[in-house]
Amino acid sequence: MQHMDDRRPDRQTSKENTADKKPAREIQWSFDRNFQGWTCSQCEWNYPVPTLLNDPEAKNAYDRLASAKFREHKCADHPTRMTGVGPESFTSRIRKMVAHGYKPKDAVDLVVQEVAIEYPNQPKILDQARAEGEDFLRRLRAGLI
Fold it and tell me: Where is the composition biased (Basic and acidic residues) (predicted)?
């Protein structure tokens, strides 16, 4: 029979191990008025979309290249990501709805409807929401998110 005092101090429970670890970094799609492209969830690394990139095959190639560059980057070489800065992107709203159980297409449709209500008579913002929604679905179909 082993007493609690007999446990080795170098052994930790799985709960203790996971609590001490930082969350894994993730590649995230960012889309706002000033920037469109891939970013790191932990640092300020980013990979902006080239201007006038419209062809779906070219976009998929860009996404594969960004993914490789993301894996190669070192977070220590970039400033730490500031959280909670700036307005929430439409893509992040879509992601939150999907995380709560909505089907991706339904989440996109609902966010576009919400934007139409929140920003009446502002067609540019509605167009941006639609573009982010289409881009989200394209990336999802391509298996990138």
Answer: 1-25
Are the CB atoms for 76 and 45 separated by under 8 Å? no
- d(CA 144, CA 61) in angstroms, rounded, equals 11
Radius of gyration of the chain (CA): 20
Sequence-distant (≥ 6) Cβ neighbours of residue 65 within 8 angstroms:
47
29, 135 in Cβ contact below 8 A?
Answer: yes
* Tens of pLDDT, residues 47-104: 888 877 778 888 888 889 999 999 999 888 877 765 443 456 788 889 889 989 999 9
Are 62 and 19 in contact by the 8 Å Cβ rule? The answer is: no
